[in-house]
Amino acid sequence: MNLLRASGIRRTYGSLQVLKGIDLEVKTGEVVAIVGPSGAGKSTFLHILGTLDRPDEGEVLIEGVNVFTQKDKDLAKFRNEKIGFIFQFHNLLAEFTALENACMPGYINDSGNEKEITSRGKELLDMLGLSGRMDHLPSQLSGGEQQRVAVARALFNRPSIVLADEPSGNLDSHNALDLHQLFFKLRDEFGQTFVIVTHNEELAEMADRRLVMQDGIMLP
Ligand code: ADP
Ligand code: MG
Questions:
Q1: Alpha carbon of 166 to ligand 1 centroid (Å)
Q2: 199 CA to centre of ligand 2 in angstroms
Q3: What residues does each domain of the chain span?
Q4: What is the pTM for the complete model shown?
Q5: Are strands 16-27 and 57-62 parallel, antiparallel or unpaired?
Q6: Considering 53, 86, 103, 127, which has the largest number of Cβ atoms within 10 A of its Cβ?
Q7: Cβ distance 141 to 94 under 8 Å?
Q8: 93 strand-pairing partners
């Protein structure tokens, strides 16, 4: 079954046509890589898949839900529960510890009590090899560790899909490979589904599918 189906996605900024009608279907447990030159529209497309931006035309279904027909409040809840995000620059909150950052989607959710939230955060950081770093601030972590905290945060609510935009773009090759292997481990062990925009050919080759975007279209 398709976990995600995007069809006919178009997006313009003023007179600039950034997305010219894009279709994408992703199955549960698939790892899909999207590559392509800078300016191709990859980030714009990923933001639309993640409901952070709305298309001018086209629709996105996730688990059968036509996401943009939801009211803003419902859409925000849907996004928090169903979609995990990992960005190139981790976007961790500087004032908060690794554990607090990992737990952020739990706090936003306001379901579940403090104890459950903390225990879920610890479980994830343990799994990601960060047991000894829970109380560190982002500035006290290496780039690879920061990105693993971002992965923990993305996984917190057991999302249906994780969307990653150049997740290893800021890492050295060793940490990049570690991160990529982590994605496949999460897929193999938990059936986690990923759509990953990347310039890293090694990662794109490891993926189940390597799609190429160019000039606002997905190449056949
Ligand atoms: P990629 O991620 O493939 O490098 P982007 O999706 O970031 O490409 O951008 C595609 C094009 O859309 C670029 O020409 C960019 O300048 C333009 N663009 C992206 N976001 C905006 C925006 N908010 N306003 C105007 N133009 C934008
Ligand atoms: Mg981009």
A1: 15
A2: 10
A3: 29-57+70-218
A4: 0.95
A5: unpaired
A6: 103
A7: no
A8: none
pLDDT in tens, 82-109: 999 998 877 899 999 999 999 999 988 7
For residue 27, give every residue at least 6 positions away whose Cβ sits within 8 Å of its Cβ, in sequence order, or none.
1, 2, 3, 193
Per residue in 129-183, pLDDT (tens digit) is 999 999 999 999 999 999 999 999 999 999 999 999 999 998 999 999 999 999 9
User: The tokens 């249906």 sit on which residue?
Assistant: 160
Q: Which amino acid is at 113?
A: N
Ligand 1 contact via 42 beta carbon (within 6 Å):
yes
CB 103 within 8 A of CB 80: no
Quick one: tokens of 189?
Answer: 């062990």
Which of 12, 13, 35, 197 most suits a substitution to test ligand 1, by most atoms within 8 Å of the C-beta? Answer: 13
C-beta of 39 in contact with ligand 1 (< 6 A): yes
Which atom of ligand 1 is closest in space to residue 36's alpha carbon? 3
